[in-house]
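Lecture notes, structural biology module. Today: joint structure prediction for complexes of two components.
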Amino acid sequence: MSMLIYLIPVALLLGGGALVAFLWAVRTGQYEDLDGAAARILLDDEDDKPLLK
Amino acid sequence: MSCCAPGLDGAADGAIALPSDDEVLFSARDLGDGVRQVEFSVPQVHCAACIATVENGLKALPAVEAARVNLSTKRVTVRWKGEDLPPLVSTLARLGYAPNLSDDAAAGRDGTLSELLRAVAVSGFAAGNIMLLSVSVWSGAEGATRDLFHWVSALIALPAMLYAGRIYYRSAWSVLKHGRMNMDVPIAIGITMAYALSLYETIYSGPHAYFDASVTLLFFLLIGRSLDHVMRERARTAVVGLARLQPRGALVVLPDGGREYRPVSEIEPGMTVLVTAGERIPLDAVVTEGRSDLDCSLVNGESAPQTVAEGATVRAGTLNLTGPLTLRAIAPASQSFLAEMLRMMEAAEGGRARYRRIADRVSAMYAPVVHLTALVTFFGWLIATGDWHLAVTIAIAVLIITCPCALGLAVPIVQVVAARRLFENGVMVRDGAAMERLAEADMVVFDKTGTLTLGQPRLVNTHEIDPDALEAAAELGAHSRHPQSQAIAAFKGAGGKPIKFTSITEYPGQGVEGHTAGAVWRLGRGGWAGEGEGTLIGRDGVSLATFSFEDKPRADAREAVSILKREVGPVVMLSGDNEAACRTVARELDIDVYASGLMPADKVARIEEATSQGRKVLMVGDGLNDAPALGAAYVSMAPATAADVGRNAADFVFLHESLKAVPVAVEVARRAGRLIRQNVAIAIVYNIFAVPIAILGYVTPLIAAVAMSTSSILVIANALRLGKAGR
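The predicted structure, tokenised, for the full assembly:
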């Protein structure tokens, strides 16, 4: 059972990492235009970022 | 999707005036450092190629720093440096994407959605981790391990309850403050009680903690709420993105002779205003100079354009078709016809404000019953056993198991699926309550011009006209914005001998004149173009042919009316147009009851009369003069080509030309209504089974989790049937 000492923090860290990544994605406007994101993969423009305010 | 065919989009039909440069500069936002930003709505953007065309086309302009298309909302944001406006509008129009200015309020990011998404993420993270620990407890972890797992769960759940739960706490508090009840109240109480009990159990090393139940519940409910928000936001941006038919401002001639673009609200009576052909009249005024034809169909429902000259009074919202006009304002914007209509609309707003949503009605009955049951359970166990702790535990278990997860999802999930189906059919829904009201409608009232008909004349007597004269008329007609000229111009190349004109001039209010080597041709009103009445073409003053026009009904109008008669109830036409025009349309579409020459107040009176007889009226209209009637009706619908006010007042907006949208919307709303009732029934049946188990004290966290998930999945699966059926 002593494994739990490592396993629980590891599980939380992994989950927390995903949460932080998601919050970052929302904040940088990556959920603003989901249809556009699907279409833009067909464009060749390398420097293609959402406009931030 | 057949894509990238500019001008084929239903909403883009009709003569839409592009925003003027003054108007664009007026709505631009200053970002500092000399950088300005403006946002256009570009409804014709459909695919990746469109994105590339628009963005590259705009970035090619020297001053433009950045351009970004949002395909979901069909908008483009442009940033440029410097005082002067680059030719953005003309560039977009040249590329085939006619822009509209979108409302300032709609610009920018959707703050509520970001908040909901963050709350979903936090509760999802917490739910996943707590579930992991709970499964270990359910599979037999005991003693110190179980306590450790409970403590970790409590720690993870706390921020989720505070951060994600505050959306429910806020909503519950705001309705409780007003002494009302909604579904969020039992939800907020349920999750809080579950957390409090679990914390108590954890502190005293009890076997049962409900952390997973409270957080998972929150997670599911937030997903439902986010979907609901996305649906409404989508409809709202689509409606806001439609062409603005009311100008923001106008070109004012200053006393010193200079010209300045001013917002409508700053124009005072007595000021001189210039309106070019193709622009809308900004406010009520008198013509001081110029002659033109006005399209009044949006304002009073008249289908034929009116000729105005010096001294005539013109109303705000009418479209100037043929010649430039100089006007003297006679009323400030706050007292214009438009403002009058707004006031009437607010006064008429009746049936809608009183309507209570199904979910609210259910929760108003549900919450007291549930809370009473919990209270009775508490006293029952207390009297039977005298054990405080046991009584509280079981009473809270009742609250947890009845926490209306399924009920909270029952209504929004169905409405999201229904809105999706309507969206595919080109119909936008303002909110879920509108759909519930539409399902109950039992009478339909139509406006005529622009709603049952397209508001555009169609040439009907081509077979009587000499092909050569028709060809000449079509050539001349192409040089005018007058709707009748446009209708004739559509017959260009229909078989007649082409004529080469050396010069073509439009005489506003009269017609179009063309010169050939030996003759003068005129297309226009009788008396000017040649002897006779009506619209005709003449050569050197001799009439060659007279044209007759008819207002063309919308596609599928007859069929839509017959379906509505069968499925909904009586169909009535109320119009501001003259008797003869109304009779023709009523006969053609098989409408038995109609009234002509109505003022806006008359329409409202007719609807209120029907309402007082117990009818629930669906009003479909497009004009400024229909706006009060749209407000007075139980539920309302407007085409995308409607006046701004009407469009904003309507519960539904349909984007395509076909009138079939109306019966389709009614059908979807009714099916949604049935599914909502089924879902509520499922949720209640679930409670009938689950509550006795909880009252008897047999509920464990495992049973609670299984029961609540099953009921939620049942409800969602039932809602999804709406999306599948009838495709």
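Point to remember: Residues 4-27 of chain A form the longest helix (24 residues).
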